TrEMBL record:
GO terms for biological process: lipid metabolic process. CDD domains: Delta6-FADS-like. It comes from Amycolatopsis rubida. This is Acyl-CoA desaturase. One of its GO terms (cellular component) is membrane. Pfam families: FA_desaturase. Residues 65-331 form the Fatty acid desaturase domain. It comes from the Bacteria.
Length: 369
């Protein structure tokens, strides 16, 4: 936990919030054809990769063709989920009024229904980021990812659960919306889950039918190889999405919060919590695209409804603002962030006390005043 209220004075927090509001408004005022051209190009690339991948699997008896097909299909699924689906469903392109870019109409290539995701992710996670017992993405109801989560012998399996979640990530995200842990505690009834479960069954049936029945059957005698190719592409997408998402939320320096310290939160305080509760991943422009620009998780948590292609453009300014206010800006390469997350998962499998709150640099705080 962190001493959230001790980071800045009330006046500093509100000035900090006004600076970020001004930055956001400047980007909103600049949205236009370049942003639309960008997402259309990404969609075109995604569709080309999917057609190429499925076409190559028709020649799956040739190992190079099979491998290339899996790679192309995995790339298509990654682009669909990360740079297109996740971002479109955040409303980043609602301003275009184009139906296929509507946050309320978009459906992605994964077993998790978009309607469920919009509630659990867009609302719950982004409203209550890293508030223990409020943000259900802290541990996904499966893992102990914060020392404030009461330890239980069940958590000795933390590394095993994390590995399984990484391998089956789309299924974990799908089941996340059932909130089974809350049902077990008596905080939610199975009757409340009926609409959620209906959407899950409907969406998962379509995905299973597409990847594991229809397309394999279309390749005739190569059906087993095609089924394996589709499963492999899904596995690659699962591992990639898990890595990017966990590296943006759970490296060692990322902080968590209590419900009490976030009561009656102002806009500036909300921004402050997003900064302290997120981490970035450094990499190439292609890496950022494949991550859905969630490699800029800090900027995404500050401005979830801005087109993600804008995050690299404003990252330097956000970092500079943080430095002036004496605030951390957590970032690092993928391998470093992954190692940090892995160590946290292993460490929190064992009982332990919360880490001491981070200290504030008085000189930097005065410079920001």
């Amino acid at each position: 936990m962190t001493g959230l209220q001790d980071r800045l004075t009330p006046a500093q927090v509100e000035e900090f919030g006004r600076e970020l509001d001004a930055l956001r408004q400047r980007i909103v005022d600049d949205l236009g054809e370049e942003d639309l051209d960008y997402i259309r190009k990404i969609i075109k690339t995604q569709r080309a990769l999917e057609v190429t991948g499925r076409g190559l699997l028709f020649a799956g008896f040739l190992p190079p063709a099979w491998l290339a097909g899996v790679a192309a299909l995995a790339g298509a699924k990654i682009l669909d989920n990360m740079e297109i689906g996740h971002n479109v469903m955040h409303g980043q392109y609602d301003w275009t009024r184009i139906p296929e870019l509507s946050s309320q109409r978009f459906e992605w290539d994964t077993v998790a229904p978009a309607e469920n995701w919009r509630h659990s992710h867009n609302y719950i996670h982004h409203t209550y980021t890293n508030i223990v017992d409020k943000d259900r993405d802290v541990g996904y109801g499966i893992l102990r990812m914060d020392p404030a989560q009461k330890w239980h012998p069940y958590y000795l399996g933390n590394p095993v659960y994390a590995t399984l979640l990484a391998l089956l990530f789309q299924w974990g995200v799908m089941l996340h919306d059932l909130e089974v842990d809350r049902v077990v505690k008596g905080e939610r009834t199975w009757a409340e889950n009926v609409p959620v479960l209906r959407r899950i069954v409907r969406k998962a049936s379509r995905q299973i039918g597409k990847d594991y029945v229809l397309f394999p059957l279309l390749t005739g005698p190569l059906a087993p190889l095609t089924l394996l190719g589709n499963a492999s592409a899904n596995l690659v997408r699962n591992l990639w999405a898990f890595s990017i998402i966990f590296c943006g939320h759970f490296p060692a320096d990322v902080e968590s919060f209590t419900e009490e310290e976030t009561e009656n939160e102002t806009r500036g305080q909300w921004y402050l919590r997003q900064i302290l509760g997120s981490a970035n991943i450094t990499g190439s422009p292609l890496f950022h695209i494949l991550s859905g620009n969630l490699s800029h998780q800090i900027e995404h948590h500050l401005f979830p409804d801005l087109p993600a292609r804008r995050y690299p453009q404003i990252a330097g300014e956000v970092r500079e603002i943080c430095e002036r206010y004496g605030l951390p800006y957590h970032t690092g390469p993928l391998h470093k962030q992954l190692w940090s997350v892995a160590k946290k998962i292993a460490r929190l499998a064992l009982p332990g006390k919360p880490a001491a709150p981070a200290t504030v640099d008085p000189e930097r705080q005065l410079r920001a005043a």
